[in-house]
Amino acid sequence: TATLPPQLAGKFKGSFAYNTIKDRLPLILTKVIDTLHRHRNEFFEEHGEKGIESEKKAIAYLSRLRNELQTDKPLIALTDNLPDSTLWNQCLEYHQSLSDEPPSWFQSPWLYTECYMYRRIHEALAQNPLISDFDVFKEEKVHNFFESQQAIILMSTYLQDILKNVEKLDENLLKKEFLKLLQVSLWGNKCDLSLSAGADSSQKSDPLQSVEELKPFILVDHMEKLWSLLINKKNMNKQTTRLDIVLDNAGFELTADLILSDFLLSSKLATEIHFHGKSIPWYVSDTTRRDLNWTIKQMQAANHKGMSRCGVCWEGYLKNGLWIYHDHLFWTSPHEYCRMAQVAPDLYSELQKSNLIIFKGDLNYRKLIADRKWEFTVPFHQALNNFHPAPLCSLRTLKCDIQVGLKPGQGEQLTNTEPEWMIIGKYGIIQFDAAS
Ligand code: F6P
Ligand code: MG
Q1: Chain centroid to CA 128: how far?
Q2: How far apart are the first and last CA of the chain?
Q3: What local confidence, expressed as pLDDT, does residue 199 receive?
Q4: Residues of the chain with pLDDT under 50
Q5: How far apart are CA 105 and CA 310, in angstroms?
Q6: Quick one: pLDDT at residue 334?
Q7: Model-level pTM?
Q8: Would residue 234 be called left, alpha or beta, if left means φ above 0 and alpha means ψ between -120 and 50 degrees?
């Protein structure tokens, strides 16, 4: 591994990783503590004094955690005995074996310590069975959904209009709609709650209207390649086309992903769609099974024809197995994707069955290229470092300072005109790798 560039880490003072660990992560922890406080009555109503006790214990644990982080203490082993604790503790041992200094919040790779923080938040609750089921980020995710309501209405209406005569759309029109919905799904990734540390980050403008205005901000645009792959497959007839989407954030982004998925299924550009979500609350807004079910229920119950129609169809797709939801503990592990074949061979072989895997969002991108400081011009295929289960594509708005596959000079020019281009979520990529 001596030839690979280093991973991002908090030890690089002034870097985005450093600022995140110093400012953003403590803020997220403070909000979690505050959320538990505010739900005290609920815990009391459900479990009496014991509920309050659990809440207090979880809060004490989280305050300690925040202190460990802020004072760069060594990382410690998990004690909650959940199915993935051993994996995490092995990972800790591995990092301990790397140097004489114990792994710590700022010194160790940022990808590892940040994932570790979310896993420790989970431990704070898991240790208290009465409240272990409580999703500390639920409120923010719900808020994002409701704040994006107008945009969701627009999207649902638009989708229902297309679906009315989707059978009759010629290839050109089909392509036009595909590209549009794909871009809405890309820009939906602006709505994550980790970069904003939980502050409102909902979709306010008309997402369809923005598509043309935002085009110049797509730095890597492989939309044509995706289209060729899907339409060629469709024209081969009678084939199954399996699409996998590794989901990111609940709220507007998830809704945009589901709208794209409905379109792909209804137009037969895909015949089955597999979604991959998180099994525990993660990076504030990431989608869990509960978030998906909640979203579909909300759509159904909405006082709007287009939305409720979507909700009813989506529930049907899940029931009939046209849409399939999976969660796997690997997605909430700290591992880079080049290690998947070794660490989670079952998941890797599942993904090998796919015709196209879409990875949504920034964290997935970081894991795809192992959070390494690659040169901007290194080919995506190379940075994937042997992670090639199937053709894959990243839809990501840039929220951390790594990027590969740019044209010579492109990154430098952006740095000159807009020094913060990599971390403000203004730019996006649709970056494809053919796997072979
Ligand atoms: O805070 C770390 C980080 O990975 C950022 O780089 C990014 O802003 C956010 O978390 C997650 O973004 P996304 O929801 O797009 O994966
Ligand atoms: Mg996310």
Answers
A1: 27
A2: 22
A3: 83
A4: 1
A5: 43
A6: 97
A7: 0.97
A8: alpha
- For the CA of 286, the closest atom of ligand 1 is 14
The per-residue pLDDT for 193 is: 86
Å from CA of 195 to ligand 1 middle? 6
pLDDT of residue 220: 98
**How far, in Å, is the centroid of ligand 1 from the Cα of 337?**
16
Q: Which residue type sits at 320? A: N
User: Which ligand 1 atom is nearest residue 363's CA?
Assistant: 16
Q: Is the CB of 283 under 6 A from ligand 1?
A: yes
Compute the distance from residue 173 Cα to the ligand 2 centre, in Å. Answer: 32
Predicted confidence (pLDDT) per residue in 401-433, tens digit: 999 999 999 999 999 999 999 999 999 999 999
Structure tokens at 221: 């645009």
